[in-house]
Amino acid sequence: MPVPFRGRTPRLLLMERQRIETETDIVISGAGIAGMVLAALLARRGWRVVICDPAPPPEAADAAGSDLRSTAYLAPSVELLKTAGLWTALSPHATDLGALRVVDTKGWPPRLTEERTFRPNELDLEAFGKNVPNWRARHLIAQTLERDDRIDLRLGVGFASMLARDDAVLVRLSDGSRIRARLLVGADGRASPVRDAAGIDATIRRYGQKAFAFAVRHDRPHENVSTEIYNAGGAFTTVPLADHEGGPASAIVWMNDGRRGLDLMEMGEEDFARELNLRALGLLGRMTKITEIRLWPVITQTARRLTARRVALVAEAAHVLPPIGAQGLNTSLADIAALDAALADGDPGAPQGLDRYAAARERDVAVRARVIDAFNRICQSDGEALQSLRLTGLRAVHDIAPIRRRVMGAGLRPMGTAL
């Protein structure tokens, strides 16, 4: 039942109700993967959900604005997607993450100095997780949500403003429509309008790096192995995909110092292909780019708080991490699981539920941000001392079995638990 507006005069109550076009339990700003997974989970608990996003999901990899990254959904994330009723749609498009190979290099052209492979059988798993291209996952999840009567999916419409009260939040969307809800969730990205409207600041650490995302075909099978190759400027990561036109394919995330990244973007196809294949060390044979390149700045950004009155922040509205170790979207899905578990039964925006959510996630987010920030700085550096530290760390993490198992397990803890 809708929560009544307490303490208002009849005239004010009438004015407010004349402005309200929709009453619901929860509004989610942001229909990216994280926001839509949250909508599915909340709807399965019986909540009425409105979710909006100004950018509808692209229907193909080559469509404008498509996200060409591929996410390795680690084992807890796969379980969460199953709970949300979404994995059935995604699983036919998923590729096993059967191992993680870490390669250290130095100089240019890169020279391999060390290589180690981490395998999931040490954690009694068949695979670390499943890889699905982001554009495809978002498109398929949106199709699933459209069939759920408890979810009002509004694509092409964004969040405009909010007025939070003790018992409800009044939300205005970019098309002028007004919604009365008991909770507003900001899942609307690193420049989150909801975070700004709630008066929550964010801290930002910049690295002067640019990241590329695109897909390639290559000569040799990837054998379901994801590879991170470290060199000055940051990591070069291959993520196994399903075959493309009969040949093996991988998604690439390639970090560079900013100037180097811009120089690469200005190269012709032949010169870019030469630099790409040098950077990949030929580990998968010759690579050929098969999609456009998406470019974005690498930062670490964390919200100073995860909640405000009748407001919760999740995913990139709460934290942005460098693209290392499959931590980005998996950390966002940990937010989703924790928020879903924390909300009070009778009132999803009640302070006690939001406090439980903040307590469950703030330390974990802070620790992960610090660890990945430090690791990225070490990996980015071309200084001899930091390169030696990176090499020593790789050997210690892999070669000392208890440390190896602890590091591998850190990203596979149950959703919502801290490191």
TrEMBL record:
Pathways per UniProt: Cofactor biosynthesis; ubiquinone biosynthesis
InterPro entries: FAD-bd, FAD/NAD-bd_sf, UbiH/COQ6, UbiH/COQ6_monooxygenase
FAD-binding domain location: 23-363
GO molecular function: FAD binding; monooxygenase activity; oxidoreductase activity, acting on paired donors, with incorporation or reduction of molecular oxygen
Keyword list, A-Z: FAD, Flavoprotein, Monooxygenase, Oxidoreductase
Superkingdom of this protein's organism: Bacteria
GO annotation, biological process: ubiquinone biosynthetic process
Pfam family, one: FAD_binding_3
Cofactor(s) needed for function: FAD
Record carries keyword RNA-binding: no
PANTHER family reported for this sequence: UBIQUINONE BIOSYNTHESIS MONOOXYGENASE COQ6, MITOCHONDRIAL
Family, similarity comment: Belongs to the UbiH/COQ6 family.
Name of the featured protein: 2-octaprenyl-6-methoxyphenol hydroxylase
Source organism of this protein record: Palleronia aestuarii
Organism lineage string: Bacteria, Pseudomonadati, Pseudomonadota, Alphaproteobacteria, Rhodobacterales
